[in-house]
């Protein structure tokens, strides 16, 4: 039997990039998956089609995680479609870089609304349905350890994600719900392409500081998330697993 057979998962921001790979990895292990998207309906539909073509179960559900009603709708879709919820992966995220002189209120609120408030709102909706054996995986970043220049706001959101992971591990542990984070190093995704990271000096620097000698692929992260979601990780909670080819 596959490791997630009979489980139901919500993956936020699964229309592309790391989230899409996570949705496929969980489905490949037998989970039925809610593939959330904010603006990329076509991307989410493609992820669902790929999962179904491989013999899995998935449904695309739109919603902005930073809006409480949408967050509840994303979670409710799992329960309405598949009857339960076992796994939540808080993957939705935005990242833009700005030197201290260039930080604006809009830059701050955009990042904290999606990366922190959104994670809290979806988790709040999910904990109504998660029972014993439930697993929450938050996608943080290695930036919370390496604190790169010009990333004060983005890095602050991921520091908050690490802190929330620790707090909720304690808060939800008595209910036998585990809460962990995966902290990727640089990964080639639609997002890092459109941010101009791929092909830049920043990518060259990232490779040079990575013992395994390359940047990550979405599947490198997805397999770690699938492990944390599964019973193989039953004794792990409150952990932040750095998945970065050794960069830290
Ligand atoms: N790529 C990296 O190098 C890297 C490294 C460390 C950590 N991370 C983290 O990994 C996560 C995914 O990154 P990525 O590179 O795969 O990003 P990406 O390619 O830009 O994809 C971002 C995803 O988040 C969704 N999203 C954005 N705003 C949302 C909102 N308000 N509500 C719901 N979904 C929303 C997008 O949905 P739509 O497209 O439908 O709008 C998309 O599915 C992020 O949390 C990021 O901080 C990435």
Automatic annotation (TrEMBL):
The keyword Glycoprotein does not apply. InterPro entries: KR_dom (IPR057326), NAD(P)-bd_dom_sf (IPR036291), Sc_DH/Rdtase_CS (IPR020904), SDR_fam (IPR002347). Its EC number is 1.1.1.47. Residues 7-190 form the Ketoreductase domain. GO terms for molecular function: glucose 1-dehydrogenase [NAD(P)+] activity. The keyword Oxidoreductase applies. PROSITE patterns: ADH_SHORT. Keywords: Oxidoreductase. It is an enzyme of class 1 (oxidoreductase). It comes from the Bacteria. Belongs to the short-chain dehydrogenases/reductases (SDR) family. This is Glucose 1-dehydrogenase.
């Amino acid at each position: 039997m596959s490791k997630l057979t009979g489980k139901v998962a919500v993956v936020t921001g699964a229309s592309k990039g790391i989230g899409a790979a996570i949705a496929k990895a969980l489905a490949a292990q037998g989970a039925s998956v809610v593939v959330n998207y904010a603006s990329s309906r076509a991307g989410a539909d493609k992820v669902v089609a790929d999962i179904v073509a491989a013999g899995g179960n998935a449904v695309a559900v739109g919603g902005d995680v930073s809006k409480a009603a949408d967050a509840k709708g994303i979670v409710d879709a799992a329960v309405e479609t598949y009857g339960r919820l076992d796994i939540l992966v808080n993957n939705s995220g935005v990242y833009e870089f700005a030197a201290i002189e260039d930080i604006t209120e809009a830059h701050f609120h955009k990042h904290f609304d999606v990366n922190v408030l959104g994670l809290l709102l979806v988790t709040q909706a999910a904990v109504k349905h998660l029972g014993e054996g439930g697993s929450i995986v938050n996608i943080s970043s290695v930036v919370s350890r390496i604190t790169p220049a010009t990333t004060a706001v983005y890095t602050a959101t991921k520091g908050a994600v690490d802190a929330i992971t620790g707090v909720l591990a304690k808060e939800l542990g008595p209910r036998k719900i585990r809460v962990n984070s995966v902290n990727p190093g640089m990964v080639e995704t639609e997002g890092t392409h459109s941010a101009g990271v791929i092909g830049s000096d920043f990518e060259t620097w990232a490779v040079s500081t990575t013992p395994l000698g390359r940047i990550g692929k979405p599947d490198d992260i997805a397999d770690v998330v699938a492990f944390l979601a599964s019973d193989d990780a039953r004794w792990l909670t409150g952990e932040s697993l750095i998945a970065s080819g050794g960069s830290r």
